Amino acid sequence: MTKKVVSHPTLADVARIAGVGKATVSRVLNGGERVSPETLARINDVIRVLGYQPSQAARSLKGNGTKAVGLVMPSIADPFFASSAEAAQRIAHSRGYLLMISSSNYEDQMELDHLHSLIRHRVEGILLAPGETKNDKRNALIERLGIPLVAFNHPVQSRGITSVVSDNRTGARKATEHLAGHGYRKILCLGGESGLYSIRERQRGYMDAMKSAGLTPMLEGEANAAEEVAAVLERYLRRRSIDAIFAVRNRITILAFQALQQQGIAIPDRVALLGFDDFDLAPVLRPAITVVAQPIDEMASEAANLLFEQLHKRSNVKRQSIKELKTKLIVRGSCGCGTGRGGGREI
Mean pLDDT throughout 17-33? Predict the structure, then answer.
């Protein structure tokens, strides 16, 4: 077949060159029902040569859907959310869908703006990693949504929304119990942001373990910047009132490690360190850092799969639920289980 140059080919161009009506081309694009094999082959050949791509916007207006879903998350730069986006992208691609990704930078209004934008782009469903659990304007918008939405990492307090999260409380409790099992009695829970569901659950898990062990809790939830972490640790170390640290997120773990190194404190001989969330440098630092690891890929993949289940079922029944996935304690050297480098062993 001789290629005929057509700029931005349309369905009408395909029909004209193939010598058929536009309705026949539409049937081919929608599965080829009631089209003879010869005609089907001829139309597909024209589509291939012209490089014709059907307009998803036009298909959407006709009720065929945009074949696109959206993802709104707090940060694209954060390794946790970058991994989540990759996992969600794999699922969307396998279903023949485009994933539209946007970042809220932990700002409530930006998160709301991105949701409105995705709705205007007529996405068929939305994945949301909320910056905060409580966001009244966002939750009110979700209540009015006519398309499926699934949340992950943090739940959404809105009727009928399914959320996929880690079992933060159990993971933190087991981490604290592990430190207590080594004989540490003065365990500091370091870092936190009160608006985040995951942080509150980790602090609750820490409190559960300390109470069960008959130990006095020490919670420093406002230390989140480098200078704040360093100042808090310097104060506790000067009084020799801590012998272990449970950091509630990977950034706090890194800041605590740096502060201890700068103050000449040996890990774990003088102070043990255990953090929530794994990170790339954790196994190669000296000592390697013991962490609670979340199932990042599994969480995002499960949320994406649940979204597509809702898309395909098109069910009007909404049941609010929270699905918790198990975490793993990866034991390395910083908790006192050994020294040196390595990937660690899972508990």
Answer: 82
Burial 272-301 (b: 16+ CB within 10 A, else e): bbbbbbbbeebbebebbbbbbbbbbeebbb
Q: How many of the other CB atoms lie within 10 Å of CB of 267?
A: 22
Token pair 């994406």: residue: 304
Contact 13, 22 (CB under 8 A): no
Residues 197/206, Cβ–Cβ less than 8 Å: no
Residue written as tokens 């962490």? 291
Closest to 290 in 3D by CA, of 211, 179, 168, 190? 179
Average pLDDT over residues 198-203: 94
DSSP notation for 272-284 = EEEEES--TTTTT
Q: Which of 58-62, 115-119, 319-323 has the lowest mean pLDDT?
A: 58-62
In order of 8, 261, 266, 345, the CA distances from 295 in angstroms are 44, 29, 30, 16
Reading the block at residue 19, the tokens are 């010598």
pLDDT tens digits, one per residue of 207-222:
999 999 999 999 999 8
Q: Which residues contact 116 (CB under 8 A, 6 or more apart)?
A: 141
Q: What is the pLDDT of residue 2?
A: 47
The side-by-side arrangement of strands in the sheet containing 321-325 is 98-103, 68-73, 126-128, 149-152, 162-166, 321-325
Residue 188 burial (10 A CB sphere; 0-12, 13-18, 19+): buried
